[in-house]
Prior knowledge:
Blueprint: H1 2-21, E1 25-26, H2 29-33, H3 41-64, H4 66-71, H5 76-94, E2 100-101, H6 110-140
Antiparallel strand pairs: 1-2
Helix pairs in contact: 1-3, 1-6, 3-5, 5-6
Amino acid sequence: MIDLLVKILINMVGVYVAVLVVPQIAFPAADDLLKLQGNWWHVVVVAVILALINSYLKPILKALSFPITLLTMGLFAFVLNAVLLLLVAFLADMINIKFTIGGFPPGFTADSFIGALLGSIVISLVSIVLGMLDRGRRIVT
């Protein structure tokens, strides 16, 4: 349970940094996060969706796409991460949270995919750095 909460916090920071860095990602609730006003909890909901997808759906899709990933020397993993981030945007739109990537949802364009690709790279980098800090917690307990 603690590990899932840590993943949610790490994803929350990753999404916030991605919103700041990637111009294609539009998430008005991220502006309210530091002030804890308005719809700041939307960032938490998106982080929960991202953590659940990364914990349960991503391992299955990685196993199924292993031959393609092997043929592309690992580059398909970036595409898979981008598609999963677009899935997060789609699911957030289904529950009326305004988290769009290059206009997706509703419209899917090349700008949407590039934004999702860049956003997934930023979220992955933040997750790696914060995950390294989390390893200290696992060793101590």
